[in-house]
Amino acid sequence: MFNLKKGIIIQASSRSKGNTFAMVSYLQELTDFDVVDLNTKQIGHFDYEFKNQNDDFNALFKNIVTNYDTIILATPIYWYTMSGILKVFLDRISDFLKIEKDFGRQLRGKQLASLSCSGSDEIFEGFTMPFIKSADYLGMLYKGHIHTWLENESISEAMKIKIKTFSQSIITEH
User: Fold this and answer.
1) 3-class DSSP state for residue 132?
2) Sheet harboring 70-76: ordered strands across?
3) Biggest alpha carbon distance in the chain?
4) Parallel, antiparallel, or unpaired: how do β-strands 7-11 and 34-37 relate?
5) What angle do helix axes 84-92 and 57-67 make, rounded to 10 degrees?
6) Which of 10, 72, 136, 156 is the most interior residue, by most CB within 10 Å?
7) What average pLDDT does range 95-109 have in this prediction?
């Protein structure tokens, strides 16, 4: 028997309606997960004095840890790594490891996965390391990664199958 998990896809692209959005939209159709577009949020960089407490991050993070069991981080590949928007989002989790720790601890036992998108099938060695290590550090279960790309400005049938297989491994618990 499979149990569906309530999840959220965090889209972290500088283009809200770009290639990553196409992949996120298809994944959302398959999973019925909620989607948040970080490009529409005002999230300041992490700082040791916690000067950004009034931006959009705190409310967003509290919503995520309170309401979702599965988190998928979706990013284009910029300069061989995740987007800056996603890096800032991940850095800001540190706020909840220092202050309001009860919310930070709610990540324990949750599932994390990642989706990348670029202009080709090329993925670089070490790309997934920050996701795997972050999940481990936060006590989360890392469920895997999928690298995606458009062909002729659309999602190929082969890619749709790949995304469907990925989605099934994320939304089910064995």
Assistant:
1) helix
2) 34-37, 7-11, 70-76, 111-118, 141-149
3) 49
4) parallel
5) 70
6) 72
7) 93
Is residue 80 helix, strand or coil?
coil
- What percent of the chain has pLDDT above 70? 95
Q: Which two tokens stand for residue 168?
A: 């099934």
pLDDT band for position 61 (50/70/90)?
very high
The radius of gyration of the chain's CA atoms, rounded to the nearest angstrom, is 16
Q: Is the pLDDT of residue 46 over 70?
A: yes
**Closest among 71, 83, 113, 60 to 12, alpha carbons compared:** 83
In the 8-state DSSP scheme, what is residue 160? Answer: H
Residues in the chain: 174
CA neighbor of 28 nearest in space, from 1, 3, 10: 10
Against a cut of 0.90, is the pTM above it? yes
Q: Are 133 and 164 in contact (CB under 8 A)?
A: no
Confidence (pLDDT) at 173: 57
Dist CA 115 CA 164 (whole Å): 13
Q: What is the mean pLDDT of the chain?
A: 94
The percentage of residues in the chain with a pLDDT greater than 90, rounded to a whole number, is 92
Residue 8 belongs to what H/E stretch? strand 7-11
